[in-house]
Amino acid sequence: xxxxxxxxxxxxxxxxxxxxxxxxxxxxxxxxxxxxxxxxxxxxxxxxxxxxxxxxxxxxxxxxxxxxxxxxxxxxxxxxxxxxxxxxxxxxxxxxxxxxxxxxxxxxxxxxxxxxxxxxxxxxxxxxxxxxxxxxxxxxxx
Length: 142
Description:
The chain is α+β, with helices and mostly antiparallel strands. The protein has two domains: 1-89, Arc Repressor Mutant, subunit A (Orthogonal Bundle); 90-142, no CATH class. Helices cover 35% and strands 19% of the residues. The protein is built from four helices and six strands. It has a three-stranded antiparallel β-sheet with strand order 1-3-2. Strand 4 (93-97) and strand 5 form a beta hairpin.
């Protein structure tokens, strides 16, 4: 029951009413050992398969964005039409496998400190997070 009250608190602090469907979304997102990368469509499919329950895509979309706005989720934009969300909201880097469309955490030790020589006037840098896109090497190797 402790988890349920934690989920209710997350929902309420995000400005959402804790409905049965939203509690199911919380369960899939936050009741896990490891962090989780997903698209909204993947999450809706995962909920449907895992919990054998249909939740409208609009409810999933609105809940995910409310959690993102509150800081419970992080959005990683891969390109102009593809975003992933991450339950690990700390500053960290990612690999994106273009063959499988999988987003994978990359340890900070893998990347040397990024040296930014010029900033945008009137702006401060909040964080630096690197996205490394990878794909199979299809060259013939002899």
